[in-house]
Amino acid sequence: MRRLGSVQQKIPCVFLTEVRNEPSRKRDCQQFQVVATENVNPAALESDIHCAVATEKFDGTCCYITTYKGEPYLWARLDRKPTKQADKRFKKHQYLQKTCKGFVWNVDEDFREVPESWIAAHRVQHENGHPVPDEHGHIPGWVPVDHTNKQYCWHASVVNYDSAVALVLKTHGEDEGLLEIVSIPLVDLMEQTLELIGTNVNGNPYGLGSKKYPVHVLVPHGVLHIRNPPPVDFQQLYSWFQECQEGRVEGIVWHCDDGTLIKIHRHHLGLKWPVGDSFLNTRPVVVHVDEKLDPDASEKDLFKSFSSINGKFFSCIQDIQFEP
């Protein structure tokens, strides 16, 4: 599995963007939205976007695998965010100035507390030894996923620390058109970022599982390549998202040769997401999960559930159901 760029920071849009005074299609209660112009972002051109690897952008929550207490561990995304008062001042500045730039933060007073185990993401800038916010007013970071923390119970369902493995969705080694769900040693995923998708994540845009039998998996960033990507041109990208089956995705992330990541989201183009029949659900999937489990494991243990259908093929991941 080729390792592409790690998602540690907010990824810039492939086009220059502007703020419009109209309700956001992406965030409820936000009375402005950020949309793409037709001008390609100079940062994308500098990184040779036209030679980059185009991959599917997944709609879930970002995770990271790195060491915790000497062992490989799954970490959940937790950005350190402003207090309500500070965020109000920031949003007012953004609305009036039509840009995030130029706003001055008081990092000691303007940001919420985070757990002691929290770490800042790679490349977060520091001043006087303290991390400072990005242009969006966040300090990206991570917290380790503990099975005792109910806030991260869906993250915890895709890792087994006793066996040191994770449940991962990826392309099949011998057939790129076939997906597979496998258990992969955490050590083999070290320093990678992945997207947690499933029943209880971001409104479940892919329609996975059910309330009684939820389905969640990790998708390594960059693992699902777009086979016939459109040129980096506003109108051609717009048409691709609208008219092509492969364009029924949340967005594209380009992985440039210099390590830079560039993205486009359907919302940048004024297009709806989620869509009813996403491209993910057009691809067959096979399950290869055969874990030796604790005999006392719950019937709803995700590793146990996947092990019960080990070797089975499905027309798409949405068809995987664990109901008896």
Automatic annotation (TrEMBL):
<dbReference type="GO" id="GO:0042245">
    <property type="term" value="P:RNA repair"/>
</dbReference>
<comment type="function">
    <text>Functions as an RNA ligase, in vitro. The ligation reaction entails three nucleotidyl transfer steps. In the first step, the RNA ligase reacts with ATP in the absence of nucleic acid to form a covalent ligase-AMP intermediate and release pyrophosphate. In step 2, the ligase-AMP binds to the nucleic acid and transfers the adenylate to the 5'-PO4 terminus to form an adenylylated intermediate. In step 3, the RNA ligase directs the attack of the 3'-OH on the 5'-phosphoanhydride linkage, resulting in a repaired 3'-5' phosphodiester and release of AMP.</text>
</comment>
<protein>
    <recommendedName>
        <fullName>RNA ligase 1</fullName>
        <ecNumber>6.5.1.3</ecNumber>
    </recommendedName>
</protein>
<keyword id="KW-0436">Ligase</keyword>
<dbReference type="GO" id="GO:0005524">
    <property type="term" value="F:ATP binding"/>
</dbReference>
<keyword id="KW-0067">ATP-binding</keyword>
<dbReference type="InterPro" id="IPR041211">
    <property type="entry name" value="RLIG1"/>
</dbReference>
<keyword id="KW-0692">RNA repair</keyword>
<dbReference type="GO" id="GO:0000302">
    <property type="term" value="P:response to reactive oxygen species"/>
</dbReference>
<dbReference type="GO" id="GO:0003972">
    <property type="term" value="F:RNA ligase (ATP) activity"/>
</dbReference>
<dbReference type="Pfam" id="PF17720">
    <property type="entry name" value="RLIG1"/>
</dbReference>
<keyword id="KW-0547">Nucleotide-binding</keyword>
